[in-house]
Amino acid sequence: MVMQLDGPATQRARPPKPDMPDKSAGWFKIILLGLTTAIAIWAAFPLIDNKAWTGLAILIGTTAALLYLYLTPRHIPAKYLAPGTILLIAFQIFPVLYTASTAFTNFGDGHRGTKAEAVVAIQTASVTQVPGSLQYALTVATTGDTATGPLVFLITDPATKQVSAGDANGLTPVEATVTSAGRVTAASGYTVLTTGQASLRSKEITALAVPTAGGAIRSSGLSRAYEGKAGRVYDASCDCVRDTTTGKSWRADESLGLFVAGDGERLAQGWKVTVGFSNFTRVLTDPAISGPFLRTLVWNFAFALLSTGGTFVLGLLCAIALHSKRVRGRTLYRVLLILPYAMPSFAMLLVWRDMFNTDFGLINNLFGTDVDWFGGSASARFAVILVQLWLGYPYMFLVATGALQAIPGELTEASRIDGAGAWAAFRKITLPLLMVALTPLLISSFAFNFNNFNAIYLTTEGAPFPADNPANGATDLLITYTYRLAFGGAGAQYGFAAAISIFIFLIVAVVSAISFRRTRRQEEVYS
Amino acid sequence: MKWLKQVGWRHGVAILILVFAMVPIVFVVSAALNPLGTLSSSQLVPSGASFGNFTRLLGDTAFGSWFLNSIVIAATASAASVFLSALAAYAFSRRRFRGRRVGLLSLLLIQMFPQFLAIVAIFLMFSTITDYWPAIGFNTWWGLILLYLGGALGVNTWLMKGFFDTVPRELDESATIDGASHPQVFFRILLPLVAPILAVTGLLAFIGTINEFLIANVFLTDTGAKTLSIGLWGLVAGERDANFGMFCAGTLLTAIPTVLVFQLLQRYITDGLTAGAVKG
């Protein structure tokens, strides 16, 4: 590892020859702008086909603005900022704002779509086979991967042998090769599942209902389907859903986004409505949420501080130990000490998880112990911080080495001559100078560790969990807790998760802003 | 005694930390060479050595295409993001314009939103994109690269701006007086001078992309389209014990491109990591 510090200013710059013609740059610009226009035209066709006029307007506006920007000699800063900013807006700011806006809704399982979609779903789900239901030959296919792709029913009309593809949106006719029994062997655009592949996904197949005019088509087994009648029907006159056999009705409640019966019974399928600040107040007032939230917050701070501080101390220790030309084999030490940084961290997290395994983990083997590491809160917390220490110290070692080398040797020598001991010289001279240089990196490291999802999700997954609350474990960070709420097994609650993520955002932003204010770094921004 | 006080303790500290650093890596190496290939039979010192795990990994799984996908995506995304970031850093460091301060601070702020929670929005967005433009939709290189490039401006831009600030302004001013246009100043004078920070941000972006798990997990569902992190995760997600040797073999192979990039850029690394902060 060559660690030299040539400041940029000491390197020699080669200014361009003033008489150099600028023609090639001009051509380059024309080619790039031409490409941009070509891509925009390519992107426009699907938008026109789908009548997505808003999208088309944005596309035309952006392209026109780009062409103007790079053809006018004005607006020089914008020329440099535009490419990154457009991508930033499209793939970060827009999704983040969209997520933030869902914090004010009940978006989640059972509240995904519009009311009309909820009505279709309720009607389709209530379909049952009645005497005289039409029978079809069924072939299960997919448009993607056989194990995970979206399922499609290929349904063969018994009379005409016409094949239609059906999914949750309805039926569309397709071109297909059909056997005499009505089974489809090949269809353009679809992959037909074998019986083995289909049986692996039988749950999804049973759940899939293809809406039709009078009800829906559902599977009975893997090769037959029937068209049944809806048992529950939406009645617009009373804005309610009525059961055709029992006569019971559920009235639409627009503030909850649900159909509620007179006796308080609710239908599982609802729709997305705005709920105001109730997701936010729920975090603070619901004792089942606010208790774990505070506990997790405290641990989250401890985790971020210990991870950042621990890696810093360990990395600094390495850097100081090797900051002497008299240490033999210094280069080899450095290469080996940095090695953990080169290993893929996601994989090493999983390896560490298995090293902490109670029964055949390496750590219990080496020490001859029998500790259930992820079973107790204290040992699990110790374990995840130890793992972070291993993953994180090489980075701190690197930056501390660089910073140490940037401190002029005369400074420490002068203090030595003045009679200061090595420890005093380090504490009074070296450390303060190091902190000036490294505080911004420590702050960003803190912000990163505060939301270090992988560190928990790939090791303990939040375990151990208290018996009374399977949703919030001892090593859970706010971010893994939120992830479980948003995507976990108990049903997705995106709106609520978005509200928590806004809290996380505010916490990290405030902490970082306060720390930044105290560093020189902040002054640079204002210069 | 004097030697112990001045040099000896340095070896002591270094060796202690070295042991801590190497144990997991040695464990991975020996598990990868372990002929049985299971977790329960893996020890720190291998009981035998065979390349069975490697041949199984290359033969039975789509490791080759995972590797290719990861390299292409990480290399393209990190190179492009370094370039985009350098462009922005130049504007922030050398140009004075309205909204500069706000722009810099909001770059920092937007990073603090737990981004993966936007994954639902990203999923919905790319469902539409896949319908309209399958070439940049789910399971494609370009879609994922574009998505990663959304984060090109961020902490790296700050790091770069700090480094740009250390290059004396007189250099580009004199070039401007000599008749150089602003692209010439940027490409011919500044970019060569800030090479260390380009190398460092490139390396950080590369490591970050190779390790990225959450977004790729939602984005890449076809077996052949997966990246290393998703593919290897799949190996141990189901059969943790039986596939452990294969998983470790894959981990070692995954480290190779990172080590190569590291070697390639190493002479800049320490320079760039701190320079933005130290020399300001």
From TrEMBL, chain A:
<keyword id="KW-0813">Transport</keyword>
<keyword id="KW-0762">Sugar transport</keyword>
<keyword id="KW-0472">Membrane</keyword>
<comment type="function">
    <text>Part of the ABC transporter complex MalEFGK involved in maltose/maltodextrin import. Probably responsible for the translocation of the substrate across the membrane.</text>
</comment>
<protein>
    <recommendedName>
        <fullName>Maltose/maltodextrin transport system permease protein</fullName>
    </recommendedName>
</protein>
<feature type="region of interest" description="Disordered">
    <location>
        <begin position="1"/>
        <end position="21"/>
    </location>
</feature>
<feature type="transmembrane region" description="Helical">
    <location>
        <begin position="429"/>
        <end position="448"/>
    </location>
</feature>
<feature type="transmembrane region" description="Helical">
    <location>
        <begin position="382"/>
        <end position="408"/>
    </location>
</feature>
<feature type="transmembrane region" description="Helical">
    <location>
        <begin position="297"/>
        <end position="320"/>
    </location>
</feature>
<dbReference type="InterPro" id="IPR035277">
    <property type="entry name" value="MalF_N"/>
</dbReference>
<keyword id="KW-0812">Transmembrane</keyword>
<feature type="transmembrane region" description="Helical">
    <location>
        <begin position="26"/>
        <end position="45"/>
    </location>
</feature>
<feature type="domain" description="ABC transmembrane type-1">
    <location>
        <begin position="297"/>
        <end position="515"/>
    </location>
</feature>
<dbReference type="InterPro" id="IPR000515">
    <property type="entry name" value="MetI-like"/>
</dbReference>
<dbReference type="GO" id="GO:0042956">
    <property type="term" value="P:maltodextrin transmembrane transport"/>
</dbReference>
<feature type="transmembrane region" description="Helical">
    <location>
        <begin position="80"/>
        <end position="98"/>
    </location>
</feature>
<dbReference type="GO" id="GO:0015423">
    <property type="term" value="F:ABC-type maltose transporter activity"/>
</dbReference>
<dbReference type="Pfam" id="PF00528">
    <property type="entry name" value="BPD_transp_1"/>
</dbReference>
<dbReference type="GO" id="GO:1990060">
    <property type="term" value="C:maltose transport complex"/>
</dbReference>
<keyword id="KW-1003">Cell membrane</keyword>
<dbReference type="InterPro" id="IPR035906">
    <property type="entry name" value="MetI-like_sf"/>
</dbReference>
<feature type="transmembrane region" description="Helical">
    <location>
        <begin position="332"/>
        <end position="352"/>
    </location>
</feature>
UniProtKB/TrEMBL annotation, chain B:
<dbReference type="InterPro" id="IPR035906">
    <property type="entry name" value="MetI-like_sf"/>
</dbReference>
<keyword id="KW-0762">Sugar transport</keyword>
<dbReference type="GO" id="GO:0042956">
    <property type="term" value="P:maltodextrin transmembrane transport"/>
</dbReference>
<feature type="transmembrane region" description="Helical">
    <location>
        <begin position="141"/>
        <end position="164"/>
    </location>
</feature>
<dbReference type="Pfam" id="PF00528">
    <property type="entry name" value="BPD_transp_1"/>
</dbReference>
<keyword id="KW-1133">Transmembrane helix</keyword>
<keyword id="KW-0472">Membrane</keyword>
<keyword id="KW-0813">Transport</keyword>
<protein>
    <submittedName>
        <fullName>Arabinogalactan oligomer / maltooligosaccharide transport system permease protein</fullName>
    </submittedName>
</protein>
<feature type="transmembrane region" description="Helical">
    <location>
        <begin position="244"/>
        <end position="265"/>
    </location>
</feature>
<feature type="domain" description="ABC transmembrane type-1">
    <location>
        <begin position="67"/>
        <end position="265"/>
    </location>
</feature>
<feature type="transmembrane region" description="Helical">
    <location>
        <begin position="66"/>
        <end position="92"/>
    </location>
</feature>
<dbReference type="GO" id="GO:0005886">
    <property type="term" value="C:plasma membrane"/>
</dbReference>
<dbReference type="GO" id="GO:0015423">
    <property type="term" value="F:ABC-type maltose transporter activity"/>
</dbReference>
<feature type="transmembrane region" description="Helical">
    <location>
        <begin position="185"/>
        <end position="207"/>
    </location>
</feature>
<dbReference type="InterPro" id="IPR000515">
    <property type="entry name" value="MetI-like"/>
</dbReference>
<feature type="transmembrane region" description="Helical">
    <location>
        <begin position="12"/>
        <end position="33"/>
    </location>
</feature>
<feature type="transmembrane region" description="Helical">
    <location>
        <begin position="104"/>
        <end position="129"/>
    </location>
</feature>
<keyword id="KW-0812">Transmembrane</keyword>
<keyword id="KW-1003">Cell membrane</keyword>
<dbReference type="InterPro" id="IPR050901">
    <property type="entry name" value="BP-dep_ABC_trans_perm"/>
</dbReference>
<comment type="similarity">
    <text>Belongs to the binding-protein-dependent transport system permease family. MalFG subfamily.</text>
</comment>
